[in-house]
Amino acid sequence: MDQAKIDWDGFRGDIEGIEIEDSPQTVRLKSRDYFWYSPILNEQLRKCWAHLVVCPKSEAEVIRVASACAKWRVPVTPRGGGTGNYGQAVPLVGGIILDMTGLYKVLEVGDGFVRCETGLLISDLDRAVQDTGQELLMWPSTRSQATIGGFISGGSGGIGSVRHGVLRDDGNVRMLRIVTLEETPRIITLKGPEIQKVHHAYGTNGIIVELELALRPAVDWHHAIALFEDYTDAVRFGEALCREDYDIYLISVVDKRFSPFYRTLNDVFPETRHAVFSMVGPKTIDAFKADAVAHRGAVSLMMSDNELEAAGLPPVYECSYNHTTLQALKSDRSWTYLQVAYPQPYDPKIDAVMREEFGDDILRHHEFARERGAYQLFAIPLLKFTTKERLYEVADRYEALGCTVFDAHVYTIAEGGMKVVDEVQMAFKAEADPHGLMNPGKTSQAEAEMVLG
Ligand SMILES: Cc1cc2nc3c(=O)[nH]c(=O)nc-3n(C[C@H](O)[C@H](O)[C@H](O)COP(=O)(O)OP(=O)(O)OC[C@H]3O[C@@H](n4cnc5c(N)ncnc54)[C@H](O)[C@@H]3O)c2cc1C
Question: Dihedral angle at the C-alpha atoms of 152, 156, 160, 161, nearest 10 degrees?
């Protein structure tokens, strides 16, 4: 795809009246996401920039932009908050960044569901549904910067997943409204299992303008930390919390060697103890404390949102998922991370072997979540980065020990988490993006090589 051949004046003429940003500084800033977590992706993506940022404010404006992009063959990379980790919102071949944050309206909150535009910040959406006594089923730890459209297009699950499963699970996302990338764009509404056509497709097969999510009655979640001398005890405590009759929204097990990255928490997460960060409902607080003691641990923090704010402490969800990695990177940019699914039940031998072979170059961090109803154990270990070869040597070692590694150091869907080309999503791409203009190069390595030439 050759940028030089695009008639930018013609394109601008067709979208006249719609806000654009073309200062080089803004365009470069909005061409980035959190790919720099990976030194490998940083090398590949740090010089990839769009030509222009276009900021529609309504579905009608999105349709005009989609039509102009199809007519002038302009590549389009949708963008929400730009918090994705794999360069999902980075344009490989220029074109425009479609900044979706101008579509931020909550359209309807009903009993058990919310319908909204997709550029809305997740924290704003959650606040709106909380006003009705309900809450979102799950959100990423980036909730105050990330949009709900970006979560559906690029995310998988997060805080709440130990209770309600992942985004992919039936009934969590109820409807997606898509604008196609054609000269005369169409609106396609996907419901039920059909949402898989577009969920986690990195904005490669349609612009999601509106969506509907399931809601549950709100719980007054308390921020909890339990401390353990032994890491296996901490994981076993996490396993014990995985019960239908417990109100638990987060179970994140973090190695004590993370403690120096959390200075503000040192009184409640000292360097001598491994921690389980959790969000616990009022009816489960007593059981949580008793279970911690039964696993040779003790609770060091149990606070409501208001109490936490008054104490000047960060929310526990900022000590979970990829926020844990972020805290380490803030102190030392030589860390990176892996994404690993562990066999069930937890076998401490895996971590013992990794410790023996890689020592302090790996710091343990596990997350509990449900998928299709079953509890699963995932890990986001920190890894000291030296070379690409060594990173994959460590990944291979995890796999030899029975784990599955989801590659966080590639920007394509097929070679990353999914591990295969998703034929259903590719068939929908042929329908919704017939000119292959949406986030080109992100579906598979083969497509990337084709568009990069
Ligand atoms: C510190 C940290 C913690 C994180 N924790 C989690 C976590 O707990 N769980 C999790 O799943 N992820 C997590 N992530 C990844 C990311 O924050 C989430 O997936 C987030 O929801 C992405 O939203 P966003 O608005 O920033 O999306 P962006 O990064 O802007 O976009 C993500 C992808 O979606 C596409 N896209 C955006 N909007 C649309 C649209 N309207 N239509 C079509 N395509 C669109 C983009 O092109 C891109 O491919 C984390 C990242 C960081 C840096």
Answer: 140
Residue 378 to residues 65, 89, 404, Cα–Cα distance (Å): 40, 25, 9
- What are the structure tokens assigned to 415, written together? 């070679």
Q: Nearest 5°: phi and psi at 420? A: -140, 160
Residues 338 and 45: their CA atoms lie apart, in Å, by 19
- Average pLDDT (269-277) is 98
| Cα–Cα–Cα angle for 371, 417, 103, rounded to 5 degrees | 85
- Domains in the chain (CATH in brackets) are 102-218 (3.30.465.10), 222-406 (3.30.70.3450)
Q: Residue 418 — pLDDT band, cuts 50, 70, 90? A: low
Tens of pLDDT, residue by residue over 33-54, are 999 999 999 999 999 999 999 9
The closest-lying atom of ligand 1 relative to the alpha carbon of residue 158 is 8
Q: What is d(CA 186, CA 7) in angstroms, rounded to the nearest whole number? A: 24
Cα 149 to ligand 1 centroid, rounded to whole Å:
8
Pocket lined around ligand 1, Cβ cut-off 6 Å: 33-34, 77-85, 88-89, 100, 118, 140-142, 146-147, 149-151, 153-158, 202-203, 207-208, 321-323, 326, 439
pLDDT tens by residue, 372-408: 999 999 999 999 999 999 999 999 999 999 999 999 9
Beta strand 19-21 pairing with 365-371: unpaired
Q: Which of 62, 142, 380, 382 to mutate to test the pocket of ligand 1 (most atoms within 8 A of CB)?
A: 142
The token duo for 271 is: 């360097």
Measure the CA–CA gap between 114 and 195, rounded to whole angstroms: 16
Strands (E), 194-247: 207-217, 222-228
Both structure tokens of 340:
């690993």
DSSP states of 26-80 as a string? Answer: HHHHTT--GGGGSHHHHHHHTT---SEEEE--SHHHHHHHHHHHHHHT--EEEES
Residue 297: phi and psi, rounded to 5, are: -120, -175
For residues 239 and 347, give the distance between their C-alpha atoms in angstroms, rounded to a whole number. 12
Q: Angle 203-204-210 (CA atoms, 0-180°, nearest 5)?
A: 40
Distance CA 432, CA 328 (A): 40
CA distances from 391 to 173, 327, 339, 396, 397 (A): 35, 20, 12, 9, 10
Interior angle at CA 404, CA 377 and CA 360, nearest 5: 75
